[in-house]
Design brief:
17-stranded parallel beta sheet; about 500 residues; about 15% strand; alpha/beta
């Protein structure tokens, strides 16, 4: 045997190619790795390390218990028929101590491979921590559908660096707050914390600030929109200094002024996705963010905002762009409801969006449902020069606004000036068609064009003209949603 194969790190690397192979049948790859473990003593431990380090079910581990302790039903679910002794559990350590990642498959019926009672036995604190001392990544989304999420409290440990779970429908707000307190207190080494939630459940509002400072190494925070976090949680001194991804929903509380100047806020943040009550909250967060690496900004807000506040927001985006060479994506969406205030939306003139013209590195710009946009051909002509690397553009008023100020000339300018533009969505005045389309050019990569809610005279003629002008177009959308929304409004704003 070559001396290089006696080095464990080299063997791990070589065997890892089997684990990450292109073969879609992981069972075959695992079989190959298992055969390597039986080849010779030098291969045994490295092969077992690779074979067990990432698990998607608990069934394979429990099958290593003595056969008289468990049985398998027709659905291939493992059930314990006798209570294992301490020594029985410890016999699994020769395999379980190698497990570093537990992340169930998403396929139906393959989440666990064990019954609920068996799961409770494994998740008892004494058993779990003895079996999995090397576990670093834990995905417990399945707990929301099977057993109480309180089991999560049994498995938290300082060795965890990634944790993901789902808020179940039946959980009480006080129980959730207590659980989050346990996470911040007992998993201080976390780098990634992802919490999922169901769409059709009531929102949870945390009664007090989360103590993120207990987890100084956090890189990613992703919370569902059903979990509302007080803004003050994000602005405690000396915390979240390594945060790169922030995605959560804020309560309606105002963003507090920064009182501690010894350390910057979010100094290395790369992605900010915030759902807020007002756009003022979004402005305040951007104003406090010190990162020069911010590449993606996504803001959703529920309360209508004035043109002055909207202009201020775009000014803050411009400031982010001036200090961050990575800003490439801006998403801004108003989460509207059909009430009296939204039926008469704010009107935003082209001057409102002028600060965005300084953001020359934008690749994705998605602005929708914020009110009535009066962007015209003159603004689009300037935008074409300002955003040369744009790949996706969506400019949308509220869906019942039917007075587009741009024409087909704007589409032509965007296609000619933005050589990478592949997806475009905006309403236009298409009642008059140019006589020729040769000026569009034949090299446009535009694949998707959505002109829904446009003022169109002859739709067939418009579609024929645009498809002739855009030879690479694969998807053309021209829905008349305005009439549908008007019908809803005539019914008093109910669907």
């Amino acid at each position: 045997m070559h001396p290089c194969l006696l080095i464990t790190e080299i063997l791990h690397h070589i065997i890892g190619f089997l684990e990450s192979g292109t073969d879609s049948h992981s069972t075959y790859r695992n079989g190959d790795i298992a055969r390597l473990a039986r080849t010779c003593r030098a291969f045994k431990d490295p092969a077992l390390d690779v074979l067990w380090r990432r698990q998607c079910a608990l069934g394979p581990l429990l099958k290593c218990l003595p056969g008289h302790l468990w049985t398998r039903d027709a659905s291939d679910t493992i059930n314990l028929i006798s209570k294992p002794t301490k020594n029985d559990w410890l016999s699994l350590r020769r395999y379980s101590f190698r497990i570093r990642v537990f992340e169930p498959n998403r396929g139906p019926g393959r989440l666990l491979g064990v019954s609920d009672n068996t799961l409770r036995a494994i998740f008892s604190p004494t058993v779990f921590h003895a079996l999995f001392p090397s576990l670093h990544i834990l995905n417990l989304e399945f707990l929301a559908n099977n057993i109480a999420l309180s089991l999560l409290d049994h498995v938290l440990s300082p060795s965890l660096i990634q944790l993901r779970f789902r808020i179940p429908n039946h959980l009480q707000p006080d129980d959730l707050h207590e659980l989050l307190e346990s996470v911040t207190d007992r998993a201080p080494s976390l780098r990634v914390l992802r919490i999922d939630g169901y769409a059709r459940v009531l929102s949870f509002v945390l009664p007090s600030a989360m103590r993120f400072g207990r987890m100084p190494y956090l890189r990613t925070i992703c919370f569902p929109n059903t979990l509302c976090v007080p803004p003050v949680s994000l602005l405690q001194p000396r915390q979240l200094q390594h945060l790169r991804v922030l995605s959560l929903t804020l309560t309606a509380d105002p963003v507090p002024a920064l009182r501690h100047s010894d350390q910057p806020v979010f100094p290395v943040l790369q992605c900010m996705k915030i759902t807020a009550h007002t756009l003022d909250q979004c402005c305040a967060l951007l104003r406090l963010t010190a990162s020069s690496q911010l590449g993606e900004i996504s803001m959703l807000y529920s309360s209508q905002t004035s043109e002055a506040v909207m202009h201020t927001f775009f000014q803050e985006v411009e400031k982010v762009h001036s200090r961050s060479r990575d800003l490439h994506t801006l998403v801004l969406q108003h989460i509207f409801t059909l009430n009296s205030s939204n039926l008469k939306p704010f009107v935003y003139s082209p001057q409102t969006f002028e600060p965005l013209l300084a953001c020359h590195r934008l690749r994705v710009l998605d602005i929708r449902d914020i009110g009535a946009l009066t962007i015209d051909d003159a603004f689009v002509a300037k935008a074409t020069l300002a955003w040369p690397v744009l790949e996706e553009l969506r400019l949308r008023s509220l869906p019942w606004i039917d007075s587009p100020c741009t024409t087909i000339a704007s589409l032509r300018e965007l296609v000619r000036g933005c050589s990478r533009l592949a997806r475009l969505s905006m309403a236009i005045d298409a009642r008059a068609l140019p006589e020729e389309n040769s000026a569009w050019g034949s090299s446009s990569p535009l694949e998707e064009l959505n002109i829904s809610d446009s003022d169109v005279g002859n739709l067939e003629a418009v579609e024929r003209y645009l498809k002739a002008a855009l030879p690479n177009l694969k998807r053309f959308i021209a829905l008349d949603n305005v009439q549908c929304w008007r019908a809803i409004l005539r019914m008093g704003g109910t669907v």
